[in-house]
Amino acid sequence: MITVDKVLKDIENDQLAPVYLILGEEQVNAEKIKQKLLANFPEEEREFNVGIYDMEDVSLANAIADAMSVPFFGDKRLVFITRPYFLTGENKKVKIEHDTNELSAYLDDPEPTTTLVILAPYAKLDERKKAVKQLKQKAVVVDNSPLNEVAVRKTILDDLKAKGYTIEPTALEILLQRTDANLTMVASELPKLLLAAKEEKKITEQLVTLMVSRSLEQNVFDLVDLVLRRKTAKALELYHDLLQQKEEPLKINAILEGQFRLLLQVEVLKRHGYAQGNIASTLKVHPYRVKLALQKTRFFKREDLKDAYLGLIHIEERLKGSSQDPELLFQLFMLNFTQKRA
């Protein structure tokens, strides 16, 4: 398995492999690889020598037939296969049936003038499948898993520097917090920040605070902190605000439960000597979320986390089983939780 940086350099040097498997969920880097490959083809040749096949809409046979074709008005072809769900354990309800034997036969004898690129936006593939085993053996596999926080920071700073921009340290922190240090989410927010900062070429804390909205999950993360610190009035105020924003009580409660479950899991694994990276891979959670959870667990006892989690499960049962006022239930939860410490 090779890195995204390595494959980008190879493509730039025109050192193309017959078959690539781009495996992982990082959309930004997958798009970078795609655009770098397309740049090898003059625009007038792309219509004839570049094919893109979505496996949820088109059969695999069509893509393989295109890959086996000789170039037209050029000396090479480029074929993309996207969303190859049949390589995973996922059961998709689609009308298209795919014969993976055709892919296996192609991998045994790939067309020398074609570069076949399989864009698999999944955390993992089904290793039991013959086609997956063959791909791992015969294709160049590119690790396109989500970047960790350090890599995301570096990518943001490098991209901004290349465009002639700077960003305040506090602004970068807020941007990372509000995007969960997810490069794809960062990429969707940066264009409006660049536009707003085009005069000064500097992205400020004020700009990020104003223009990058907080998600429900991030508001709930703040609510977790207020609950644990027994700040009842502020917790009730934030809960009321979320309801006023038409957020569903069950959804708010489910995210709260998930946050406390994560805190408990992180706390237990930390006590067993697990480091941040090990915890993230064990729980299959983004490392940045684990980092924030680790910060919180330094200040609160496991008993508090457990009491809050069980209390939220009780709220969920009441919300599903009765028509009681959600705000009243949350008030009772805060009252019980606060009294337990006393």
From TrEMBL:
Gene3D superfamilies: 1.10.8.60, 1.20.272.10, P-loop containing nucleotide triphosphate hydrolases. Residues 20-143 form the DNA polymerase III delta N-terminal domain. Residues 217-337 form the DNA polymerase III delta subunit-like C-terminal domain. It is an enzyme of class 2 (transferase). It catalyses: DNA(n) + a 2'-deoxyribonucleoside 5'-triphosphate = DNA(n+1) + diphosphate. Its EC number is 2.7.7.7. The keyword Ion transport does not apply. Pfam families: DNA_pol3_delta, DNA_pol3_delta_C. Keywords: DNA replication, DNA-directed DNA polymerase, Nucleotidyltransferase, Transferase. It comes from the Bacteria. InterPro entries: DNA_pol3_clamp-load_cplx_C (IPR008921), DNA_pol3_delta-like_C (IPR048466), DNA_pol3_delta_N (IPR010372), DNA_polIII_delta (IPR005790), P-loop_NTPase (IPR027417). SUPFAM superfamilies: P-loop containing nucleoside triphosphate hydrolases, post-AAA+ oligomerization domain-like. GO terms for molecular function: DNA-directed DNA polymerase activity. NCBIfam families: holA (TIGR01128). Belongs to the DNA polymerase HolA subunit family. PANTHER family: DNA POLYMERASE III SUBUNIT DELTA. This is DNA polymerase III subunit delta. The lineage of its organism: Bacteria, Bacillati, Bacillota, Bacilli, Lactobacillales. The gene is holA.
